[in-house]
Amino acid sequence: MTRHAELVVPGGRYVLRRARIPGCFLHAPSAFGPADADGSFLVDLLIDNGLVADISAAGASMPADGPAIDLAGRQVWSTLLDVHTHLDKGQVIPRAVPDGTLEGGARATIADRQFWTEEDIAARMRFGLQCAYVHGVSMIRTHLDSHEHLAPRSFQVFRAMRDEWAGRIDLQAVGLAPLAVFRTDWGNRLADLVLQSGGVLGGVTDALGVYEGAGDAEMDRLLDAFLMAAAERGLDVDLHVDQTEALDPFALPRIAAAVLRTKFKGRVLCGHCVSLALQPDDVARETIARSVDAGLDFVTLPTPMIYLQDRKPGRTPRWRGVTLAQELLDAGLKVAIGGDNCRDAWFPFGDHDMVDTLHQSVRIFHLDQPFSRALAMAGPMASDIAGAGRHGRIAVGAPADMILLSARTLNEAMCRPQADRIVLRRGKRVMDPLPDYAELDALAGMPA
């Protein structure tokens, strides 16, 4: 058998024979015969000028002539999505030195902003996007720190990056600010900027968002103002919610109540929600039920959260720092997995590699029974949450954007890093290398 990394992808019109595709990536997968033990289907794909022209059960109806690659049952996935990142603050190691705490991350980020010129933000975003592209990510939603004197600069860079990367990575932006700004005129002006940039309105509900110790009634007023600003402009919203181990204030049920109270019609995505896992069982069940009523979506960020949460000097952490992903899924709610911070003041690791994030998520959340549920959380379910259309699916008529793995089963896929993966974009193999960290050395403030 030809070694996986040495497979030659012909381009133009060709067939991928005996591709094993997890059912979550396919529309009506049962049409392709019986599933294997992983819920994957053995199929042939016809690729024609960058599009998936046909999918059929393996050996059923593909042309016998013309170029073909026999994948011999290797896994084929759609390219993946990362619907919660922070490209604007990433790639600042060792300029910023994390201390592993939430409060330290906030302080170090504020200090690092002295270097955030347009050129600096663009260089770091470009580096992160190149990593994601090579690893097989085709859609990213990035939060942009949106304080009054920073947001115009960050959004200008974002719009330039969105144009520069069009056709490689589809980008969405979230204007992220403390809910407290919706007491002020800046909240409405930020919403206007988000609208002009085709983005999503963001907010932070807890102490990290300068909640200022306000009581429940004030949080309700801020949430109403936030949702009203979004509704008036037809914007979806994306919130950082309950990011600490503190049980009170507990914002998630108040968000659900605010959505129902205001009759907000847009998508509402709640990120983090880690304290949900620490609430008493009856409170957690009631909160999940309210979330169902309000139609909330969720994104969990396991790798930075397991690093940051329950960190105390000289003490091993006692909990994993992640939300109740299985319970939310079991309630019928949509839950995505996101990469979150990457080599920044909050989390010094990461490479915008959603295959790696999936590997870690399966272990952290016990998502191995079945594996396919985890794949959907970075594929079609994440796409539905972000309104990202074709991303996360392999379908006739769609671009041939796929990841070809050397693994045959999902167990094999989770046991090795899949560093020999082949990424196809519009049917052509991505040959670009990962960027060299030395490219960041010239940025202001980087040690010589």
TrEMBL record:
Keyword Hydrolase included in the entry's annotation: yes
Domain Amidohydrolase: 213-426
Record keywords: Hydrolase
InterPro entries: Amidohydro_3, Metal-dep_hydrolase_composite, Metal_Hydrolase, Metallo-hydrolase_Enzymes
E.C. code: 3.5.4.1
A single BP term in Gene Ontology: cytosine catabolic process
Name of protein: Cytosine deaminase
Organism of this sequence: Phreatobacter aquaticus
